[in-house]
Design brief:
two-stranded parallel sheet, mainly beta
């Protein structure tokens, strides 16, 4: 799946999570070992979601 969206800082908390549309491939960057990035999306009852993290070499 091609990257179609990039994270936007500040997304370091639940309150500032980036909204992501289902079916969208996103890319982000962890700045240091204590960095955390948050994302949010909406699903309906009965939907299933797969998250596939990829770490570039």
């Amino acid at each position: 799946m091609a990257i179609t969206s990039y994270e936007a800082e500040n997304n370091d908390s639940i309150a500032t999570a980036n909204a992501v549309a289902l079916g969208t491939a996103i890319t982000g960057q962890l700045m240091n070992s204590s960095d955390a990035d948050y994302y949010k999306f909406t699903v309906s009852a009965g939907d299933s979601v797969s998250l596939v993290p990829y770490v570039s070499p």
